[in-house]
Design a protein that fits this description.
Two copies of one chain form a homodimer.
Chain A lengths: L7 H11 L2 H6 L2 H4 L4 H29 L2 E3 L2 E3 L4 H10 L18 H14 L1 H20 L2 H13 L2 E6 L15 E4 L5 E11 L8 E8 L12 E6 L1 E3 L5 E4 L2 E6 L10 E14 L5 H37 L23 H33 L3 H37 L10 H8 L9 H14 L4 H16 L7 H27 L1 H36 L5 H17 L2 H10 L3 H4 L10
Parallel strand pairs in A: 3-6
Antiparallel strand pairs in A: 1-2, 4-5, 5-11, 6-7, 7-11, 8-9, 10-11
Helix pairs in contact in A: 1-10, 4-5, 4-6, 6-7, 6-9, 6-10, 7-8, 7-9, 9-10, 9-11, 9-12, 10-11, 10-16, 10-17, 11-12, 11-13, 11-14, 11-16, 13-16, 14-15, 15-16, 15-18, 16-17, 16-18
């Protein structure tokens, strides 16, 4: 099992130095007294303790044992249930819950940081509470008061958990194709019938009841995405007092065999006249789901961050210990039979790549979640609109880019271990298997890329982008830099200007060649990711450099500046390739008919 | 399980159109009558039949069941043993074997093509005969006549198999650190004692006997790589007539739990005073291993090719069937509820990327193996030297680049499948797990990169590179191109000139900054890979375009030209990034001390 320690020092840096969180949250009455250094640090320490001591030891066990299903009853791996009980006792499920229903009412930033640590120590386990969050936020946003009273209270306390039931075997990215039916009953409820697949945490033994949020079609609903409604379907029906009554008509008919996240139950759920309750307006189910989907995308981005961090930590420990060969520029450790492999350039390059991915991803995810909170907490329309716009732009970037970086970091982790990276006991290959789901679920990288370029950028006529690039230019105007930071700021300026130019080019292509826009989408997404990272790394470098100039002796800040330099020197040049491909001719992409792709 | 059909049409193109194999092999008396179209086609068809019908159905079974060990006895998955019997009956083990010892004496090109198909249909199974080839070629090159008589005959017939025992738990890439001891006995044999790990096919139930080739140290041998000798250690000792006698002191104490290739037994082998026989001169074991290691690297490159091809075929079939969304430029299939996903630019881009990887890798591997054969068959010193030099240069490129492309292709395969890519029954995730070993074993990508840049390029003062770039320039001089091929040829010319310039820059850095050379190695390797692919794709485009101009109606050639255009337009721009990184400042790579990498 690779070593892991919660990166509290860096989390602290992002909270305080980068985001100035105390000042930020003090602006809003709901968060003012909650988001103090003292409280946040205490929560993070309790979470770290729990994750390192309870969840981390279950990570490899969960992978080996997986979940089992027999007659519809799903058993989670040894220790998962007990860990969940402890998690409930510690009060984590209620962290961000509405105070009216027993929640603690914390903003999402704190949950995001805690969920990074949860996922880092046990991805599969972390999905159970993760999915509950999705169900809670959907009911919170769209449920009636009665529904909130009935379902939200027990979800917030954690004695119940929740799921999101979207996918069907023929309908994944294209939810307009779903077939699950909802037929109205006399009593105002609905009978739900259909088969859902890929339902994470869809059935398990952790909680008394499971509240499914289900997409289905009303009779005579319009075809496609405009005919989908949203329903609450509990595993156990409730009696008039809200207590658990008879079993509802929803059964786990199978568990999927997957590449990773074995400890999470990925269920095929059969709904057979299951009793459901409409949530939100008829035929507006997909719109209601957007709240959840955006939250789920940020949650998935966090999973990418977790993989970057854990693969980094594992590889770093190994690279300091493992001896092989001598440094190319001369023996470094003459007392040992060989040098530790951290001296070798390709190994250092992989480790530093992982480091900039992990720390950059943390900065982006936490920065992004302040906008989730501002959109929620602010009463200033302009401020709220700005936050929502930033979220719309940055969510697909964070989701796709951070998960792809997680995949890359996991790969480097295995490479640093050499052949041992392929062996299960070292844990690096589990990270590589677990993280592979993250570029697939909640919309593949390719889907995010099309969402970003077509819906967000072109859909807003470029305005969403300008909102961010204005923020970056403002930062550049305020910071001229010194001999250390100026080279980074100047590279940031270049890449931002190029981002704007490339975007204008693409907008001009909309009228005459939409195919070229499609061809550019994935590279545009990567370019955007590296550009956003450049902004955050420049910001972090400026902050750290200021501390150094103020005379700090904390080596953390020296390392931060040096890591930022690595980003600008050895990672940002990747944009050269993406820029070229955004502008590349796409004729050859479309010239082959499907029949000409292969010849036997 | 993804669909797969042997790509005989493309193999045929590479053999005939690209390599002109009949004319090439007609030059040498040993291969003249063997390498005819008729014979080669017949062998490839028999191999395809066997692989598609016997090995492919065992691929998922092997992955699910894995190998089992009990009291040192290893059981392979259901059907593996029977398939091996059939393979022996068909005479495949003897294909390239020395005719004096019962072999068929074919050049390696034919074996390389067959092993592509073997690996494509069942990677784990294909490793058993693959390792035998390593043992055979080692004994063939360095064994005495008596050793050949005793061991080679039964290896060639296939009733025995072989292994290569190099790695120890603390010594992988750095074999100079191995500790296994060989103590001379009175009778001229040696007692071998030590533990070897990661021994593929180290113990199993496929064959009567297993011949281990083992690296060990003689008493008082010099430290490091110059004190390693090579031994033959049979699983069962032989009596004076060469028949199987008592069990030797080598036992499989455990099987590794791995990310993939579950059907292959990756053994921990304990040698406890096992009887061994010196092969080659004392303390020259590593030199003797180079023959094997180069062959093993080309074999691993083939595995990368196989992953590119199988992931491509699986994804292509799915992309034609799966319906989701409408094409960005308008509905393509109005009769269906959605368009097949092959219409979407990001999906097409992934499929064509896989296609250029698979076909380009095939071209490179087969081209490379003609040099293996020329080095072996030619009696012309100059021709032989040229072949050996090309091999020295191209082997690390092929090994590292083709396996990395295989990893990327497998990733695209999963992405095309969306969430279904993560589910075992579709088989795409198995390809992704299996292929991950290929960038690790036989020297990681990073090790190959250092071998290429430091040993081969700088070690030859750039001369090895010039040998290849002269060949490319010669090709460019002979082919001016037409309006279709000229843009590709001109891009090839640019990238080759840049390759030469970058190499000169790096050579100049050797005296003043070796660290910068190390920092550039991995990007130099990728740049080299894309440059070599540019050469081969240009050559294939020119050949196909000539056929078109000669009036062919075979759509294969039109598709080949179009695929080449895709390579030059949408893959080759990756060299921009690698060139920038080769030239990038590497200060930030070395500025952090190991202590400053992480803060808790």
């Amino acid at each position: 099992m690779p070593s892991y320690t919660s990166p509290l020092r860096d989390i602290n840096f992002v909270f305080k130095d980068l985001l100035g969180f105390e000042k930020l949250y003090a602006k809003y009455p709901q968060s003012k007294d909650k988001m103090t250094s003292e409280i946040v640090e205490q929560y993070l320490e309790v979470a770290s303790d729990f994750c390192e001591n309870e969840l981390l030891p279950l990570n490899a066990i969960g992978d080996q044992q997986g979940c089992k299903v027999q007659n519809g009853i799903v058993t989670t791996p040894d220790g998962f249930k007990e860990a969940y009980q402890k998690y409930v006792e510690l009060g984590f499920p209620s962290l961000t819950g509405n105070e009216e229903y027993g929640g603690q009412g914390f903003p999402s930033l704190l949950w995001i940081a805690i969920s990074e640590i949860l996922t880092s120590t046990n991805w599969a386990w972390g999905m159970y509470p993760g999915l509950s969050h999705g169900a809670m936020s959907t009911i919170e946003s769209h449920g009636t008061d009665e529904q909130k009273e009935k379902y939200l209270t027990n979800l917030i306390s954690g004695i119940w958990t929740g799921t999101m039931c979207l996918t069907e075997s023929h309908a994944g990215s294209d939810l307009g194709l779903i077939r699950t039916k909802a037929v109205p009953n006399q009593d105002g409820s609905y009978s739900i019938t259909g088969e859902k697949i890929f339902i994470s945490a869809g059935e398990h033994d952790l909680s008394e009841n499971i509240i499914h949020i289900v997409l289905a079609r009303l009779p005579d609903a319009p075809l496609g995405t405009k005919g989908i409604s949203l329903f609450i379907v509990p595993k156990f029906n409730l009696d008039t007092d809200g207590n658990i009554a008879e079993r509802n008509g929803v059964v786990c008919s199978a568990l999927e065999h997957k590449m990773g996240i074995h400890g999470n139950a990925t269920c095929v759920l059969n709904f057979d006249n299951a009793k459901g309750f409409l949530i939100g307006p008829e035929n507006r189910g997909l719109n209601c789901m957007f709240t959840f989907m955006n939250a789920a995308r940020i949650g998935t981005a966090i999973q990418g961050l977790a993989a970057s961090e854990t693969a980094y930590q594992g590889a770093l420990t190994y690279a300091k210990e493992r001896l092989a060969m001598r440094s190319i520029s001369g023996i470094k450790n003459p007392d040992l039979p060989a040098d530790p492999i951290i001296v070798h350039a390709p190994v250092r390059n992989m480790l530093l790549t992982q480091k900039v991915f992990a720390e950059g991803s943390r900065a982006l995810a936490y920065y992004l979640s302040t906008y989730v909170d501002i959109a929620d907490l602010s009463t200033d329309e302009l401020e709220q609109k700005n936050a929502e716009d930033k979220l719309a732009l940055l969510t697909p970037i964070a989701k796709a880019f951070m998960t792809e970086l997680g995949v890359e970091s996991a790969k480097h982790g295995m490479q640093v271990f050499g052949g041992h990276g392929y062996i299960s006991e070292h844990g690096m290959e589990q990270i590589a298997r677990d993280v592979r789901i993250s570029t697939l679920y909640e919309g593949t990288t390719e889907i995010q890329a099309v969402d970003l370029l077509v819906r967000k950028i072109i859909g807003s006529k470029g305005n969403l982008l300008l909102l961010l690039t204005d923020e970056i230019k403002n930062f550049l105007n305020m910071n001229q830099g010194n001999n250390i930071t100026q080279p980074m700021l100047s590279k940031l300026e270049q890449v931002v200007n190029q981002w704007i130019d490339l975007t204008e080019d693409l907008q001009n292509k909309v009228t005459n060649n939409l195919d070229e826009v499609g061809a550019a989408a994935v590279d545009y997404l990567y370019f955007s990711g590296y550009a956003v990272f450049a902004y955050l790394w420049a910001k972090m470098a400026v902050i750290a450099q200021e501390k150094i100039e103020q005379g700090t002796k904390d080596e953390f800040y020296f390392a931060k500046v040096s890591t930022a330099q690595f980003y600008f020197e050895r990672i940002l040049p990747r944009t050269l390739m993406h820029a070229a491909l955004i502008q590349a001719n796409s004729d050859s992409l479309y010239s082959l008919s499907p029949e000409l792709f292969k010849f036997d």
